[in-house]
Amino acid sequence: xxxxxxxxxxxxxxxxxxxxxxxxxxxxxxxxxxxxxxxxxxxxxxxxxxxxxxxxxxxxxxxxxxxxxxxxxxxxxxxxxxxxxxxxxxxxxxxxxxxxxxxxxxxxxxxxxxxxxxxxxxxxxxxxxxxxxxxxxxxxxxxxxxxxxxxxxxxxxxxxxxxxxxxxxxxxxxxxxxxxxxxxxxxxxxxxxxxxxxxxxxxxxxxxxxxxxxxxxxxxxxxxxxxxxxxxxxxxxxxxxxxxxxxxxxxxxxxxxxxxxxxxxxxxxxxxxxxxxxxxxxxxxxxxxxxxxxxxxxxxxxxxxxxxxxxxxxxxxxxxxxxxxxxxxxxxxxxxxxxxxxxxxxxxxxxxxxxxxxxxxxxxxxxxxxxxxxxxxx
Length: 378
Hints:
single chain, 378 residues, alpha+beta, six-stranded mixed sheet, 11 helices
């Protein structure tokens, strides 16, 4: 049998492709790295070998990171009973998943998408392609962080996605900045904008007629002053939670939740979320490089309403996209009931009306049915 000739160009292309794939040349202990959320990789399966068997980047499931093990949301007793099953999706597998939703579920659900875009001017087209063409899903909220929209370039061009309104907060630095694309079917009001050298944040309240309003915030934390950010985040979350409305917080926080047992900043950040009964809906790494895997991007909300959540593989930037689909928010409407208005009741007028009733005539009708007599009286 003749020996197969290896095309050097194809081999060079394959090697270049592998360099772009997660965990290429990774030599660390993945189980230890994922520790906090028990994102274990079966020891019998070599990640690099799995990568080499893959034929298409968008057909990944992703790379055996999803196991059949239940993943505890966090190690603390107060939320130990809550579990999330976030997964990795290719755009194709996401489209397949969402197409299985019943029509009434799609109509009543509330969906959120986030991506660290690393410059909206540079990568907006990639975002539009993924949202409009690949995922085949209309999200209620699309949050982007690290827009790199600054005070000086904010007026140059306004990013657009058909069917959405655009709100943003610029950054005073070369990096950072946040923005929201809000489904134009929703009414909303801006609650707060914050921008400084440590973080940028945008908070809006989405209005509903028969459901609880939802407060959505998108946040980006710079790589500095974690104490200042923690103070702001704790005070802001507590303020909005006290309004008794649904809360959703998304963004790139640059705080690796997988290090919650070894980093005080990660630990305190997670405790702040727990104190307000908010959970991370994504529990697996959101940025994977050849030598690291970190969980720094997320969508936080209350656990009971999460239908499905996870990371979506994309080439928008070097961060995966995150999404979360929530079940219908609690209906706040009340059944319309007719009630008597006694605010202007006059006992004197009531007695006068009773005196004028011809009781002999009512009794003379010869019925023992009290209901009929009462109806005659009315």
